[in-house]
Design goal:
Blueprint: E1 3-8, H1 14-26, E2 31-32, H2 43-46, E3 50-57, H3 59-62, H4 65-76, E4 80-85, H5 93-99, E5 103-106, H6 113-126, H7 133-137
Parallel strand pairs: 1-2, 1-3, 3-4, 4-5
Helix pairs in contact: 4-5
């Protein structure tokens, strides 16, 4: 099953990742996230079944070997990756190599709701569903 976006996150950031998914799906962006939609062992195969990847980026995901493998797989499959930075952390060398040509969006300081709205608008543009011009103009971010 192809989804709009695959959400990659580190276990300590699970609450934020699922909050993000709930907000995006409320805005009609179809998300793929483990363990809700697939077993963790199926993640590597699931990455190409999405139109794009969102990396919920923090100090935890920065050091996660699993996150690094998911990012590498997304790059290998030529998926667009958006780094959704929930902390002011720079990517480690392994991730920097893959992410340097990708887009990123800062999602700090809280509250994150306004950042979710900006992300949703960005994704809809990237995935080909253009929001009405007026809704882009009323963004607070």
């Amino acid at each position: 099953m192809v989804r709009d976006v695959f959400i990659s996150y580190s276990a300590p950031d699970e609450a934020c990742a699922f909050e993000l998914v709930a907000d995006l799906e409320r805005r009609c962006v179809d998300c793929l996230i483990a363990p809700r939609d697939l077993a963790p062992t199926a993640l590597i195969d699931a990455v190409p079944d999405s139109g794009a990847m969102i990396l919920v980026f923090s100090a935890h995901s920065n050091q996660s070997p699993e996150t690094q493998r998911e990012v590498a797989r997304a790059v290998e499959k030529q998926l667009s990756i958006l780094t959704f930075r929930i902390e002011n952390v720079l990517p480690c060398k392994n991730l920097e190599y893959y992410l340097r040509a990708q887009h990123s969006m800062d999602a700090f300081p809280p509250p994150r709701e306004r950042h979710y709205e900006r992300l949703s608008k960005y994704l809809k543009l990237q995935l080909g569903e253009r929001p009405k011009a007026a809704s882009l103009l009323d963004s607070t971010g």
